[in-house]
From TrEMBL:
Residues 361-423 form the Purple acid phosphatase C-terminal domain. Residues 1-22 form the signal peptide. The keyword Glycoprotein applies. It comes from Leptidea sinapis. Residues 32-123 form the Purple acid phosphatase N-terminal domain. Belongs to the metallophosphoesterase superfamily. Purple acid phosphatase family. Its EC number is 3.1.3.2. The keyword ATP-binding does not apply. This is Purple acid phosphatase. Keywords: Glycoprotein, Hydrolase, Signal. Gene3D superfamilies: 3.60.21.10, Purple acid phosphatase-like, N-terminal. It is an enzyme of class 3 (hydrolase).
Length: 436
C-alpha cells in the first residue's frame, strides 16, 4: 500500500512538471532562500517561511520523520519594499500542522521550479513536564554580528528548543532598498531554519510602518507578528511591541489594541488550570523599562513602564504586578544587565541570602549585545540599587526552564570565547500576583 502511495505521488509530481514544461519554463528567480521556521498556533505546528524573487505560483514543503514522504501546501504574498527602487519579492508560508511530538523531521521548501536545501528540526515533547532551552538576544545586524557563529554552532548541535530575537534586525532590513534585509535573512538561515525563531519588533524595524518586519516573519496570531503569545513546556511566553509607545505617528489604535490584548492574555494565563500547566510567565519586548546605560535617553524615558507622556496611558508595569509576570526580557541597549526583583524602582528580594527565591516582583534582563555596527553601550559609573549585574561585552543569553519551580539564565561572553560571565536561578514555590 505504501509503495502504491509513493508511486501515485510520483505520478502527480511528474504531471506537474510536464504541465509547466509544456507552458515553457520562465522563472529565473524562483530558487527558495531565507528559509526560517516559527511555532504556529500550537507547539506541534511549525510554520515554514521563505522568499523567492519571482512568483512560483505555488508554495510547498515536503517533509517527514526521516524522509520527505509528506507534503503540505500554503500561500504566498508579494511584498514591495518602500524604498526608492520599490523592490519586490514573494514571501511564502506553509504550516506543517499536527506534527508528532518529540520527533525529528527533515524538510525542504519550494515549488516545481526549485527546492531549498534539506533542513531538519525537532518538535518539542508533549505537555509541560520537560526542559525548555532557549537562546535570547536582541540587536544583531549583518555587520559586526559577533554572536552569530556561536549561535549557529549551538543551533546545529541541537542545544536550543526556541530562539527569541528581541528586536532590531540587520541594521536595517529596509536599508539599501531592503538588500540588507535579504542578506540578514540569509545569514540567520543556518539557525533559523533549524530552530523556531520567535521575534518582536524593535526601533530599527520602524521604516514604512514596520513593513519589512511584518512581511518577513510569521509569528502566531492575527497581529502580523507585532504581538502574540505561545506556550512551551512550563513557560507561557508573551511578545509585545514596545515601539507602539515611541512611533505615535502610526496612530494609537494598535497601542490600545495591544494593551487590551495583553490584559486578556495575562488574565487567561492566570486561570488556575493554565497557570498550573504553564506557571512561568516570561514577557519580552524591545525597549527596556529599566536600564542604567550612560548614553541613551531611553533609560530615563521608559514609556512602557510609565505610560505615554503627560497622561501615563497604557502603562505596562502594573500589569506585570497584577498578573504575576516572573521575568521580563528586553534589548535595545547594546549590553547585558540583570536587575534584582523590581517594581516601581524598588527592590523586592525574596530574602537577604536568596534574593531570587520567591521574589516579590518581576526580574528584568536586558540582553542587546549580540553584535551590530553601532557597537556596545557603556554604563553609568554609579547605577541605581536595583541593578544587580552589568556587562558591555558582546554576547547572548541562554535560558533553561527545567520544571515548574526553577528557571535559569546565563550570559555568554563571546569576547571571552563563550565564557559564562553571569548566571542566576529564579525559584518559586508558587506563582501568583505580587502583593505590592
Amino acid at each position: 500500500m505504501k509503495s502504491y502511495i509513493h508511486l501515485s505521488y510520483f505520478c502527480v509530481l511528474l504531471a506537474k512538471i510536464n504541465i509547466i514544461t509544456a507552458q515553457k519554463y520562465d522563472c529565473g528567480y524562483c530558487q527558495p532562500e531565507q528559509v526560517h521556521i516559527a511555532f504556529g498556533s500550537k507547539s506541534n505546528d511549525i510554520v515554514v517561511t521563505w522568499t523567492t524573487f519571482n512568483d512560483t505560483h505555488e508554495s510547498r514543503v515536503q517533509y517527514g520523520a526521516g524522509a520527505l514522504d509528506e507534503e503540505a501546501s500554503g500561500g504566498r504574498s508579494r511584498f514591495v519594499d518602500g524604498g526608492r527602487l520599490r523592490r519586490s519579492m514573494w514571501i511564502h508560508r506553509v504550516t506543517l500542522a499536527d506534527l508528532r511530538y518529540d520527533t525529528k523531521y527533515v524538510y525542504h521548501a519550494g515549488s516545481v521550479y526549485g527546492w531549498s536545501e534539506k533542513f531538519s528540526f525537532k518538535t518539542p515533547p508533549r505537555g509541560d513536564q520537560w526542559l525548555v532551552r532557549a537562546a535570547i538576544y536582541g540587536d544583531m545586524g549583518n555587520k559586526n554580528a559577533h554572536s552569530l557563529s556561536y549561535l549557529q554552532d549551538e543551533a546545529e548541535r541541537g542545544h536550543f528548543d526556541v530562539i527569541l530575537h528581541v528586536g532590531d534586525f540587520a541594521y536595517d532590513m529596509d536599508t539599501d532598498n531592503a538588500l540588507v534585509g535579504d542578506e540578514f535573512m540569509r545569514q540567520i538561515q543556518p539557525l533559523a531554519a533549524l530552530v523556531p525563531y520567535m521575534t518582536c519588533p524593535g526601533n530599527h524595524e520602524a521604516a514604512y510602518n514596520f513593513s519589512n518586519y511584518r512581511s518577513r516573519f510569521s509569528m502566531p496570531g492575527p497581529y502580523e507578528s507585532m504581538f502574540y503569545s505561545f506556550d512551551l513546556g512550563p513557560v507561557h511566553f508573551v511578545s509585545i511591541s514596545t515601539e507602539y509607545y515611541y512611533f505615535l505617528e502610526f496612530g494609537l489604535k494598535m497601542l490600545s489594541t495591544q494593551f487590551q490584548w495583553l490584559d486578556r492574555d495575562l488574565r487567561e494565563a492566570n486561570k488556575p488550570e493554565n497557570r498550573a500547566r504553564h506557571p512561568w510567565i516570561i514577557l519580552y519586548g524591545h525597549r527596556p523599562m529599566y536600564c542604567s546605560n550612560s548614553d541613551d535617553i531611553d533609560c530615563s524615558v521608559e514609556y512602557t513602564r510609565k505610560g505615554l507622556p503627560l497622561f501615563g496611558a497604557f502603562s505596562l508595569e502594573p500589569l506585570l504586578q497584577q498578573y504575576g509576570v516572573d521575568v521580563v526580557i528586553w534589548a535595545h541597549e547594546h549590553s547585558y544587565e540583570r536587575t534584582w526583583p523590581l517594581y516601581d524602582s524598588k527592590v523586592y528580594n525574596g530574602s537577604v541570602d536568596q534574593p531570587y527565591r520567591n521574589p516579590g516582583a518581576p526580574v528584568h534582563i536586558v540582553t542587546g549585545s549580540a553584535g551590530c555596527q553601532e557597537e556596545t553601550n557603556k554604563f553609568k559609573p554609579a547605577p541605581a540599587e536595583w541593578s544587580a549585574f552589568r556587562n558591555s561585552d558582546y554576547g547572548y543569553t541562554r535560558f533553561l526552564a527545567p520544571n515548574h519551580t526553577h528557571i535559569y539564565f546565563e550570559q555568554v561572553d563571546v569576547e571571552k570565547g563563550g565564557e559564562v560571565i553571569d548566571s542566576v536561578w529564579v525559584v518559586k514555590d508558587a506563582h501568583r500576583p505580587y502583593n505590592i
